[in-house]
Amino acid sequence: MNEAKSGPPTPTPHAISLKEATRIWAEIALTSFGGPAGQIAIMHRLLVEEKRWIGESRFLQALNFCMLLPGPEAQQLATYLGWLLHDVPGGLIAGVLFILPGAVAIMALSLVYAAFGHVGLVQGLFFGLKAAVLAIVIDALLRIGRRALKSTPMRALAGAAFFGIFFLDLPFPLIILGAGCFGYLAARLGYGLGTEGAPGVSEPASALGEETPEHARASLPRALRTAAIWLTLWLAPVALLFLLRGPDDVFTQIAAFFSKMAVVGFGGAYGVLTYVAQTAVETYHWLTPGQMLDGLGMAETTPGPMLMVLQFVGFMGGFHKPGALPPLLAGALAGLLATWVTFAPCFLWIFLGGPYVEKLRGNKALAEALTAITAAVAGVILNLAAWFALHTLFHEVARVDFAGLRLQVPALRSLDIAALGLTLAAAFLIFRAKAGALTTLAACASAGAALHFLGVG
Question: Would you call 189 exposed, middle or buried from its count of C-beta atoms within 10 A (0-12, 13-18, 19+)?
């Protein structure tokens, strides 16, 4: 690993077997609760601190690269690191295992929810989950705010993003693109956003070392082959649905919509959920606001990326618009379709862009673009919290257009006192008692079931 740098050095093979790596990726997948922050922490503890397979600087570099990409950064980080260690097979194993437990759990919960959702116990459980989810979203907003909004320009960007999406109904992709361009141009003109980079961390001796593995080096023929394979795997089902079922079919709409989200889904789950929720609820009518909150509650209680909630959204779309199929079968197929077109592109981004993205190390302009996007995501999450709060705490929310603004105005008489009480209890557990997300969700779900049986919820 200390060879002279005369030309491209010959990488030193590491001694990590694919079997051993698979066991570690499975362990990570089964314990990946707590959203991307917790999932990234688990990977860091196992891969950097305990196993020393990846050095500190390499891990942080990979994380920064994955945050530049659309989609779930933790799942893509696992794919990236698996790919660095064991080429495409390693990336596939790491990436698929990361989402598999959550996909199975969400599908099972979706089937139960669709079949028995009107049973008192199920209704009570999800009544409590909604309150807990609202508190968790607010906690996510505060965490990303403390990390990202450390200067006046960053806070202004977050405020502008919130105003644009909440009051002007601007498209989420436009807000993210605008923020990224602002950060990039500011850096190019010599203006920083007033943030400090992460402190340097000395890289310990690691199995991978500092050299770039042979399979991770940029190669145009390899890139063209990778693009052809993964674009076909991703988009061929979408094209077939357009040809065989037409653009107005629910399966075609699900494939097209979630494929678009896979391209513009910067900022992780909380960053894109407002756009998904409002479009799925208000444009396609695949589910109701309450059902969207129920789906987020499912995703919070299962391992894997928060974006697994998109499987539930697809499931409910197919279930409510099954056509000639049995509703549960249509829901299951639609959920699997949504999962495929959401996560297949993640492998394309890593396998195609990995060798080239590594060349971006030290590029200040791109780093500032990412920083600006992070600030905008904070504003989008504030919008998500406001949207969830309105639909959790009030039974009636009207949309009012006034002076060019689009407002969502709750009917104060429709305030749900039980939901407000549960939300305050969830906030106490998270912010004062320092309870974890799972503890809070379990407590609120139990309380919701009890209130339902008492005739309150």
Answer: exposed
- Tokens found for residue 320: 């409510």
Sign of CA dihedral 346, 349, 352, 353: negative
CA dihedral 290, 141, 199, 192 (to 10 degrees): 120
**What sign has the CA pseudo-torsion 293, 298, 301, 303?**
negative
Q: Please count the residues of the chain.
A: 457
Residue 375, Cβ neighbours under 10 Å: how many?
A: 28
Q: Which residue has the tokens 């705490």?
A: 393
Task: Give the list of residues 6+ apart from residue 448 with CB closer than 8 angstroms, or none.
Answer: 124, 125, 126, 127, 128, 129, 131, 422, 457
Question: Measured over all CA atoms, what is the biggest interatomic distance in the chain, rounded to whole angstroms?
Answer: 76
Phi and psi for 3 in degrees, rounded to 5?
A: -70, 155
Nearest to 447 by CA among 427, 412, 418: 418
Mean pLDDT (10-residue bins), the chain, 457 residues = 48 76 90 67 79 77 74 90 93 96 91 77 75 78 73 90 87 81 88 56 53 78 95 96 94 95 71 78 88 81 83 95 94 96 95 80 73 79 80 83 83 89 91 83 86 75
In angstroms, rounded to a whole number, what is the distance separating the alpha carbons of residues 126 and 113?
10
Instruction: Tell me the C-alpha distance between 353 and 82, whole Å.
Output: 15
| Token representation of residue 91 | 């990336």
Alpha carbons 216 and 351: distance in angstroms, whole number: 9
Q: Find the DSSP H helices in 117-206.
A: 120-148, 152-166, 172-188
Q: Amino acid identity, residue 75?
A: Q
Give yes or no for a contact between 241 and 257, defined as CB atoms under 8 angstroms apart.
no
| Spatial distance between the Cα atoms of 167 and 235, rounded to a whole number of angstroms | 35
Residue 191's CB is within 10 A of a number of other CB atoms, namely 12
Q: What is the per-residue pLDDT for 218?
A: 81
Structure tokens at 79: 């794919």
pLDDT of 366 reads 75
DSSP string, 370-426: HHHHHHHHHHHHHHHHHHHHHHHHBS-EEEEEETTEEEEEE-GGGB-HHHHHHHHHH
Element (H, E) at 84: helix 73-116
What the block records as the tokens of 359 is: 């060349």
Distance CA 82, CA 359 (A): 19
The single-letter DSSP state of residue 214 is G
- CA dist., res. 66 & res. 47, Å (int): 17
End-to-end CA distance of the chain: 63
Q: How far apart (Å, rounded) are the C-alpha atoms in residues 250 and 273?
A: 20
